[in-house]
Task: inverse folding
């Protein structure tokens, strides 16, 4: 069970940042109308507004490098919390930016996981 | 609703780190047998083992300074996720350690919130 949670968390993280770095509009597939994103303190709700925010960030290309992934079961119904630390390399910047991000993944009625809670912070 | 979530998150964070810095054994009141802590990648489950871990950290006194608190509702049943960034000043250390921590607070049958998920990472 514990190993399964770790695998699911890692698979999600790999998928999420791969999409972010190569096909950012496709991240919309991971959110639902009830999803919430807090990005550097700004609260955004719903798949449309979250997707707009992510696609309008002031950089076109970026590369995430993940340092740590910690996953835990978050409910008896199959939810998972995933905590990520890593860095983002932006084009034209010498130094990567350190960040931390947490996701609360919740099962849909169909049994797939979607991002219910997403909180992102740069580490200064 | 949104302001209420922020207030509850901030009240929890103030209470948690105040206990941590002044009466660490009392943190046991915030956990339950189903609680999980991942501390720097080490997974610990249950109020007894979590309390032991926190009380056996290799420093007696410390002082947390909180930089950011982001809170979101995490379920229709009253759960909350809280994401914290800040620093820890240890005795005899010149520089504080930066950390990020997330909590998933879940309601007990009595309606109080307890820490179901707790993930802590130092930021290097």
Result:
């Amino acid at each position: 069970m514990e190993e399964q949670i770790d695998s699911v968390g890692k698979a999600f993280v790999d998928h999420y940042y791969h999409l972010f770095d190569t096909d950012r509009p496709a991240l919309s597939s991971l959110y639902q109308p009830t999803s919430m994103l807090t990005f550097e303190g700004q609260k955004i709700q719903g798949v449309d507004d979250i997707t707009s925010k992510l696609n309008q960030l002031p950089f076109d290309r970026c590369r995430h490098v993940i340092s740590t992934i910690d996953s835990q079961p978050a409910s008896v119904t199959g939810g998972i919390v995933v905590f990520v630390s890593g860095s983002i390399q932006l084009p034209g910047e010498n130094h990567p930016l350190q960040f931390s991000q947490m996701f609360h993944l919740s099962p849909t009625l169909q049994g797939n996981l979607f991002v219910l809670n997403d909180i992102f912070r740069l580490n200064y």
In short: The two ends of chain A are 35 Å apart (CA to CA). Chain A has one domain: 2-122. Helices of chain A lie at 2-22, 47-55. Chain A is about 25% helix and 45% strand.
